[in-house]
Amino acid sequence: MLMQGKICLITGATRGIGFVTARELARQGAQVILVGRDGPRAAEALRQIRAAAPGAQPEALIADLSSQAEVRRLAQDFSGRYPRLDVLVNNAGAMFVRRRESVDGIEMTLALNHLAYFLLTHLLLDRLQAAPAGRVVNVSSASHSGARLDFADLQNRAAYQSLTAYGQSKLANLYFTYDLARRLEGSRVTANALHPGFVASNFGASNGSLYRPLFWLAHRFAIPVEKGAGTVIYLASSPAVEGVSGKYFVHQRAVRSSDASYDREAAARLWQVSLEMTGRQEAQPR
Ligand SMILES: NC(=O)c1ccc[n+]([C@@H]2O[C@H](COP(=O)([O-])OP(=O)(O)OC[C@H]3O[C@@H](n4cnc5c(N)ncnc54)[C@H](OP(=O)(O)O)[C@@H]3O)[C@@H](O)[C@H]2O)c1
Asked: What total of structural domains would you count in the chain?
């Protein structure tokens, strides 16, 4: 089996794209560790994976990834149990209709969709480097197109618009991926990002009654979650992308992302701000 013996940590694995990714990697023989924020939902996901992949021994770790203390605890829990990490899938993400702040006082979209990817990857880099060919897979979105980061107001304090904040966070995923790949050049760890397609997951379902009709209407044009997880699974497991790094994939193909996403100065600036916002000092990943 393709992923036999590989250790894979998948965030947002209690439903949607993350769940299907975890289940399929388990079916390919991987030891999957699901990250969920809710115990009973994680237990149900484990049950479904065991049923779909007999012999698999999936595990779950619980963390609300919008909290940096919980991201730190998660990384510690993982590192205490596993000597290496073959694949890290940063997938958990959301869109917030109204501006909210995390327990750390950071606007939620930025905290969950970008800073959690950034911090968790940093904290697990030594485990990824201990693997023969560690892979970081960052789930971004085509919504990054047209987005720009306003470094004077990264948290959209002046004017908040959910779609704008979401697009910015998905652009941040690309800045992070491209910069990480550059910093990891010469190591055995690769980093890639992807757009899963417009997927009929639970995404946006909790955005309140205002958006509900739009949510159901949009679902009529969306692809099934099984298909949406395809590029994530491909980047996590395919031998075809062994050694490939710093790319953006759609439909399992490396494609060009927006012009803005290749702005190295903005990427470096975001990296520095992200270090500061997560209380980290070092300029390079360990
Ligand atoms: N759906 C699309 O059309 C689409 C398109 C482009 C990109 N994406 C990206 O794909 C990724 C996955 O989205 P999806 O479509 O699978 O959405 P989903 O069905 O809503 O699943 C999101 C997952 O993230 C978890 N999550 C949310 N907030 C969390 C938190 N604070 N801490 C820990 N986990 C949290 C959820 O946990 P619970 O089960 O506890 O809610 C769930 O498992 C996201 O990064 C999204 O931006 C989706």
From this structure: 1
